[in-house]
Design a protein that fits this description.
mainly alpha, disordered C terminus, about 0% strand, about 190 residues
C-alpha cells in the first residue's frame, strides 16, 4: 500500500506542479498581452492625433490658399481698374462688388481655422483690399485731365501697391507659422 501512496503522491505533485506552471504561464501571458494592448492603444491614440493634426493642417492650407487666390483675383481686377480709361465700365464695378464678397467669404474661412496670428494678418489683407477699392473709387470720382485712375492719383496707386505687398507678405509669414507644430491650438506636436 505504501507503494500506491507514493505513486499517488508523485502524481499529485506532478499535477500540482503542472497546474502551477500553467497558472504562471497564463498570468505571464495575460500580463504580456495587457502590456501589448496598452501599447497598441497608445499607438492608435497617437495615430488618431496625428491624423487630426494633418486634417487640421490641410483645412488651414486650403483656407489660406483659397484666401490668397481670391485676394489675387481682387488685385488683378484692381490692376485693371487702375489702368482702365476713366470712367470705368459699370460691369467693372459689379465685378468689384462680387470679388469683395468672395474675398470676405474666404477671410471667414481663415478666421474659422486660425490661429489668431493668421486671422489678424488676414484681416489686414482684407482691410487693405477694401481700402484699395475705396481709394480707387475716390480717384475715379474726382476726374481730372488724367485718362486712368493711376495717372489721376499716382501716389494713391503706389500706396495701394505697397500695402498689397506688405499685408500679403505678413499674411504668408503668419500662415507658414500656422502650419507649425500646432502646440498653441492644443494639438499634439508634429515632427
Amino acid at each position: 500500500m505504501m507503494f500506491v501512496d507514493a505513486t499517488v503522491a508523485v502524481a499529485l505533485i506532478t499535477s500540482l506542479s503542472t497546474l502551477t506552471a500553467a497558472g504562471l504561464a497564463g498570468a505571464v501571458s495575460l500580463r504580456v498581452a495587457s502590456k501589448q494592448l496598452r501599447h497598441q492603444e497608445t499607438i492608435a491614440r497617437e495615430d488618431r492625433a496625428e491624423q487630426r493634426a494633418a486634417a487640421h493642417r490641410d483645412m488651414r492650407r486650403e483656407a489660406y490658399e483659397r484666401f490668397l487666390s481670391q485676394v489675387d483675383t481682387a488685385y488683378r481686377l484692381l490692376d485693371d481698374g487702375w489702368k482702365a480709361p476713366i470712367p470705368a465700365e459699370s460691369r467693372w464695378w459689379e465685378d468689384a462688388f462680387a470679388i469683395r464678397r468672395t474675398v470676405a467669404e474666404a477671410y471667414f474661412r481663415v478666421e474659422l481655422v486660425g490661429p489668431q496670428a493668421v486671422k489678424d494678418r488676414a484681416n489686414e489683407v482684407l482691410e487693405s483690399v477694401f481700402d484699395e477699392f475705396r481709394s480707387h473709387r475716390r480717384v475715379t470720382r474726382s476726374l481730372g485731365e488724367a485718362t486712368t485712375a493711376a495717372e489721376a492719383d499716382s501716389s494713391a496707386h503706389r500706396n495701394a501697391i505697397r500695402a498689397r505687398q506688405t499685408t500679403t507678405e505678413r499674411f504668408v509669414v503668419a500662415a507658414r507659422a500656422g502650419f507649425g507644430n500646432g502646440v498653441e491650438e492644443g494639438l499634439p506636436a508634429i515632427p
